[in-house]
Amino acid sequence: MEFSANDIAGLLGGVVEGDGSVKVNDVSKIDQGIPGTLAFLANPAYTKYIYSTKASVVLVNRDFKPENKISCTLIRVEDAYASIAKLLNLYEQAKPKKVGIEQPSYINESASIGEQAYVGAFAYVGEKAMIGRNVKIYPNVYIGDGATIGDDTILYAGVKIYAGCKVGKNCILHAGVVIGSDGFGFAPISDGSYEKIAQVGNVVLHDNVEIGANSTIDCATMGSTVIGEGVKIDNLVQIAHNVEVGKNTVIVAQVGVAGSAKIGENCMIGGQVGIAGHIRIGNQVKIGAQSGISNNLKDGSIVFGTPSFGHRDFMKSYAVFKNLPQLRADVIELGRKMKDLDESNS
Q1: Are strands 23-24 and 100-101 parallel, antiparallel or unpaired?
Q2: CB of 164 closer than 8 Å to CB of 147
Q3: Would you state the pLDDT for residue 149?
Q4: Please, is 89 exposed, middle or buried when counting C-beta atoms within 10 Å of its C-beta (0-12, 13-18, 19+)?
Q5: Which helix (H) or strand (E) holds 313?
């Protein structure tokens, strides 16, 4: 598909500077732009590329002030990053959508499949499962007995939804995601071995949740593991039994959340963070990458480190401990001089 700069500006409510008739049929990064493509500038670190990019059209923020001559057409918008996201979503929606049921696949006769759904080859849909309207189920997906999948949800290849779990509307589960596997529950017994504790709960994903490839969310021991509306989870994340994650929280790759932890709304959790079980994390909390969280955190906390502590205190401490080798050498030298001074005075 081909669009002019004027067409794009109209979609975004932007203002064109330059040739509004120039057309694009693809997108590119600003530092790798080629003719006929649309790029964007949101990060100031990439400003230098706008003077050399070969992209035909570039989205910029309204307050952008060029310091040199620019050869491409600009479209000024309120937020360049949000605008490119909107365009990419429109582009994705314009792609042809799969519908129908491929063979071989298995759909139990008691299961219900909504209109405009797609079920890929080798998929399995169990007894009394409920599949909503316009759901896309790619090959090798497993949906257990009694599971519910809301309208407009996409389950990519190899997703596994265990029995009784509920996935909301407009969710996206990427390849290899497992929803509802057993929680890690074992009771120690007198001979030193462990007896498995049956995990009889489920997982509930609310609407507009996206989960990255090969992430796992365990079912509750009893009740539900709950992922709130709008939560975004990256690849390779482990969320244990009976965890609750508040709406619009973002969790980056390789995070591990232990059982029964409660995470608030609008939190940002960096990569490789470890969160201990049974603790509570407030709303709008920010946790730096590789932090270890072993205590409750209040609303609005910003923490780093293992065990974690306040961001400002962490940065002050870091300024010290990164210089420890030199400080050690200085202390040794000071001790030597004091010893020499004592000997000279004796």
Answers
A1: unpaired
A2: yes
A3: 98
A4: exposed
A5: helix 311-321
